[in-house]
Amino acid sequence: MRLLDRHMTLFSGSLRTLLRRESDRRRCADSPYAWLFQPYMGEELVSLACTVTPTQSSPVISLAAVVLSQQQVHTSRAFVITLSSAKPPDSASLRRHHLLCEAGAVLTSNSDNLGALVEFIGNRPIVGWQLEQRLGALNALLSKRLNFALPNAQVDVAKLHQRQLRRLHPEVEAPSNFAQALACWQVPAMAVQSVLGEATASALLYIRLQRIMAQTA
C-alpha cells in the first residue's frame, strides 16, 4: 500500500461523508457488518463501476466490483449484479439498461443480495471513476436495507487523473470524459459500455497513474 499511502488525502471525502461513516459505524457496532468499518491492513483494492437507469417504479442499478493489487487487475475475481426493487421493472427501460450495462438478470434489492455485495467488497479501499456521483443510488439503497452506506476508504480516479495531468502538463486542460482520460494515459478501453468493462478500465487507469507518479516522484 506504499503508493496508496502517499495519496491518502484523496480518500478523505467531505466532512459530511466522514460524519455519516462514523454514525453508521456506531449503529452497526453490534451487527454482523461491524468488521466492514475496521481499517484494512492488506494490499488489495476493489474497483467499482455503477450505472443507474430510472424507471417508472424504481431505479435499476447495475454494479461491477473487480479486485486489484498495485500491479495487477484480477479479472477472475469480479462481482457483477443488477438490482431493482420493482417486480418486474419497466420492460423498455430494462432492455435499454441491459444493452448499456451487459450485467445479467435483475435481482431483488433485498438484504441478502446487498449483503453479498458488501461481503465481496469487504473493508478494502475502493477506486473508481467519479465515485461520489456513481454510488449515490447504491448508498441510498444500502442505507435503507442494511442501515449503512459503503464505509470504505475511496479514491476517485477522475481526481487522480486531473491532479497528475496538471502536475505534468499544467498548460493542458484535463479532460473530464472517461474515454478521453483512458486515451490520455494509453489505457485500453476494455468495452467500457459494460459495468464490468468500466470497473476493469478504472482499475487499469488507477494502476497506470500510480506507476507514473512513482516514476516522476
TrEMBL record:
Top-level taxonomic group: Bacteria
Official protein name in the record: DNA polymerase III subunit epsilon
Species of provenance: Halomonas alkaliantarctica
